[in-house]
Write a structure and sequence with these properties.
lyase activity; Uridylate-specific endoribonuclease; hydrolase; globular; three-stranded antiparallel beta sheet; metal-binding; about 400 residues; alpha+beta; metal ion binding; about 20% strand
Length: about 400
Amino acid sequence: MPGDCGRAPDSDALSRRDSDALSRRDSLCRLRHGRDTAGDRDTLWDTDRATLWDKATLPGLARERERSPPVLCPPQDLYTAPDSCEGRCGEPFSAGDACHCHRGCDTECNCCEDHERHCGHEGFSRSRDSISGQELLQLSEQLYGLDHNKARPGDIVLNPQHLAGPDETGDKQDLSPQPLYKFVNEELFSKPTYASFIKLLDNYQRATGREEEVTAEELQEQDRFLQEVMRTELMEKLFVFLQGKNRYSSQQEFLQDLKEIWFGLYSRGDGERDSSGFEHVFSGEVKKGKVSGFHNWIRFYLLEKQGVVNYFSHNFNGPWDTYPDVLGLQFSWDGFYKEVGSAFIGSSPEFEFGLYTLCFLARPGRACHLSLGGHPLSVQTYPWTKSTSASGRSFIATAYVMSP
């Protein structure tokens, strides 16, 4: 709940390495420039409602924040903010970032510790390779227009029913007697990206702390899904953009990276390889008696149809009058509760997969501000920092669309 944000973060939420790195950076900068950098961060977290707001993005919230001081409440087990300039050189200043990579950050005492290494004259992450806010807005609109496999008007009929207020989302009360989905045209699911996506959903044990056993057949299903999404114009567009930013030299390299960051296994429990980005985001998990992740409309529909998911209410309905749309919702999954989830509605698997990938690569650990059909929208991603893949890549810890 919001009131919990005043408590100290759990010891494993912020690694000592990361906090020490930021402290060293601030101390060195104060010594060099005779300034105090305390208060650089101006961010309000509300993790239970899966939102991040800053004054630069949602000015309408500024008045409310002036009445109550900002609080920092990092999500448990997730890295709260990146401390690297890799791929960010020349990026515009954003008050929500833990450290910065814009020109002038050195004199302002707020550069990331590796700013000189990445952004110096010989740095790998040159300014022209960074992804600007304007480029994210333009590319997201292009990807939105290339979602040829999305649901059409009439393919989905929703019954949102009760609109929950902020004081109702934690009540665990079923305020909507009918299912969320009145109708879905299941012919959508015969399309190659949908069919290969759905085959992946039963490959996981939802309880964290239980080792995932990946069979040869499941590995083939992962490869099939990646091959199918890469055949789409949407994912081809994303690859060409990232290649132009020197992130990947070939489509095969991109494909291998997608497999590592999304399907690579890591431990959310006591050392068991019990989780992956794909499982958490699209299939959903249960941790400490609560639903964790589970941000996909197809998964929700299929489980609701089976009677396994019970829709309670919604707290946000997006402004789109066509698909994809966005819904913030409350539900139970076999008795385990999700206080506030968020999901695109009616999008193709490749659209979500591509958009989340873009934001993970461009704005890991931060709000990724996009535009879809002329409406602003933000996606939040986090890298898993307790372990990495064999090649040293960070896994995706979570990714979700942010709902006010």
